[in-house]
Structures are given as structure tokens and as C-alpha cells.
# Entry
Amino acid sequence: MTTPSQPACASYAAMRMYSLFLSLVLGLTLTGCGNGPLGPIPGGALAGPTARFDPATLPPDPSVIVLETNPAEPYSVKINAVTVEGQLYIDPTAERTWYKHISNNGEVRFRFDGTKVIYPAIAVPVTDPSITRRFEADRIVLRLDPR
# Structure
């Protein structure tokens, strides 16, 4: 038996879910999730204090960095980074959107995951076999130099 309150309850539940969804979106926007990527979803410009990058102060294994490319329309992603002989390297494949941005303009900014300081850098292609042999053969090896 259907009562008049059932449609109202279903409608109320739908409105409540919609309200929660809008609250979540608004909350994420206001809390700074627009400051770079959100997990695997690319983001925009990074926000925070800026400092000159000094390779001598690299963490022993930076593992993950947040990289911003395309200064005209900032695009940021979380990627793996590797330290080799005191230098910081990234190794995209040619299909990556962020690599396509770098191939047009090597000016990037990055921060170590979990930190706030942003470092301006230039992504420099590396062809030295003593470095490139440490990466997978299908990768493009780039060194991040301070700028």
C-alpha cells in the first residue's frame, strides 16, 4: 500500500543527497583543493610560498612531487621523481598531457608532495646514457634545474 508520504520521502532523500553533493563540492573548492591536483585528477596553478630550488638540499628519495606545467594555463599533476647523483629527474611518456606542455615550454614549478614551498624550475631533456639507462626505455628523461 502506497501512502502519500512515500513520494515525499523519496523526494526528500534525493534533495538531501543533492545538498550533500553541493556541500562537498563547495567545501573542496573553499579548502584549497583548487591548489593543484586532487589525487589522480589534474589541477591548476599551485599556490604557496616560492623559493629557489637547490639540488644540494634534495630529500634522499623525493618519490612524489606535484608538478605544474603550462604557465599560460597552469596544469598540475602528482608524479614520481627520482634523485640521481644529486639531481632531480622525472620520466614521462610522450603521451602525457603534462609532457606535451613541457615540450612546448620547459618552464615548470613543483613542490615535494606534502609540502607547501613551490620551486620554479626548467625541465631539461637528458640524453646521457649513464643517466637514461636508469629509467625505462620508453621514457623521456628530464632533469629539473633551478631557474
User: Anything to note?
Assistant: DSSP finds three helices and seven strands in the chain. Residues 26-33 have pLDDT under 50 and may be disordered.
